[in-house]
């Protein structure tokens, strides 16, 4: 028992030191814990595991000019099979038209998961962009933003579910929020990540983004891109997630 306590204490110290290093470097940090129970991807977020998970913190608005800053509550979890992500988006006017894969989902109310799963290659990143209707766009940028993408990367087995607290595509009334829940199989990252599934203590670079649809369009993020104009493809500015096996 004493050995287990010592090991647990050392892990806590390790995570604290890592978080402090990233904070000093100006990088947002999140401890992504293993899901404590099974997760049903239904867009409701009433699973026990989500109830125990902490949010990544308030989103920031690096390019804000005007309009209402509608906040987002995002959470991350993982298990041996999937990376799980949930978003609850405050939104007075929920809109979405795209229904096809790899369509322009970013023109709708949309959330995004940008992931560089190997810290030794921080410009080698993936983006999965998902709209309020559950359609998604996925890409792999092995050489960083603005570089040619060779071939088409299609993530396999992605599950997405959404719900709307209000009415979709009706600006005559005022909505409250919309929710998206997704499970992304870790196997999609195995050619880049050091370990699949991750080992406790593994660090991935990641960002979570949101676009605001047709009315009151806003660009918000977990950690801010330091670009003059709105640009989510900025892996140099991604935050850090530390995988915790507990």
Rg over CA atoms: 18 Å
Give me the count of strands.
Answer: 11
pLDDT average, as an integer? 91
In the predicted model, the low-confidence regions spanning at least 5 consecutive residues are 6-25
Instruction: Give the class-level CATH name.
Output: Mainly Beta
Provide the β-strand percentage band.
25-35%
CATH topology: Immunoglobulin-like
Total individual domains: 1
Structural class: mainly beta
General form: globular
Main sheet, how many strands, which sense, barrel? 7 strands, mixed
Terminal Cα separation, in Å?
16 Å
Task: Write structural notes for this entry.
The protein has two helices and eleven strands; from the N terminus they run αβαββββββββββ. With 246 residues, it is mainly beta. The chain has one domain (28-244): Immunoglobulin-like. Strands 1, 4, 5, 6, 9, 10 and 11 form a seven-stranded mixed beta sheet that branches. The protein is globular and about 60 Å long.
Write the layout of secondary structure elements.
Layout: H1 2-24, E1 29-33, H2 48-52, E2 72-78, E3 82-90, E4 109-116, E5 125-131, E6 136-141, E7 159-165, E8 177-185, E9 203-212, E10 219-221, E11 239-244
Parallel strand pairs: 1-11
Antiparallel strand pairs: 2-3, 3-8, 4-5, 4-9, 5-6, 7-8, 9-10, 9-11
Features:
246 residues, mainly beta, Immunoglobulin-like, seven-stranded mixed beta sheet, 2 helices, 11 strands, 11% helix
Describe the structure concisely for a colleague.
This protein is mainly beta and 246 residues long. The chain has 2 helices and 11 strands; from the N terminus they run H-E-H-E-E-E-E-E-E-E-E-E-E.
């Amino acid at each position: 028992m004493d050995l287990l306590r010592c090991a647990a204490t050392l892990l806590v110290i390790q995570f604290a030191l890592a978080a402090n290093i990233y904070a000093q470097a100006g990088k947002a940090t999140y401890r992504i814990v293993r899901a404590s129970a099974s997760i049903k991807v239904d867009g409701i977020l009433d699973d026990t595991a989500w109830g125990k998970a902490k949010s990544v913190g308030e989103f920031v608005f690096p390019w804000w000019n005007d309009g209402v800053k509608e906040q987002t509550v995002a959470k991350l979890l993982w298990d041996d099979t999937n990376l799980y992500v949930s978003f609850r988006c405050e939104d007075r006017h929920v809109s979405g038209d795209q229904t096809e894969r790899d369509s322009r989902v970013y023109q709708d109310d949309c959330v995004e998961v940008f992931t560089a799963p190997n810290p030794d290659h921080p410009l080698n990143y993936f983006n999965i962009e998902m709209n309020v209707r559950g359609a998604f766009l996925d890409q792999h940028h092995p050489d960083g933003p603005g570089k040619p993408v060779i071939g088409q990367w299609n993530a396999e087995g992605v599950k997405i579910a959404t719900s709307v607290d209000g009415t979709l595509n009706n600006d005559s009334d005022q909505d409250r929020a919309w929710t998206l829940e997704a499970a992304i199989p870790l196997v999609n990252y195995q050619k880049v990540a050091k370990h699949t599934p991750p080992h406790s203590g593994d660090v991935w670079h990641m960002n979570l983004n949101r676009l605001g649809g047709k009315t009151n369009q806003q660009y918000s993020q977990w950690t801010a891109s330091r670009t003059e104009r709105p640009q989510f493809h900025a892996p140099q500015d991604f935050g850090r997630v530390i995988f915790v096996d507990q």
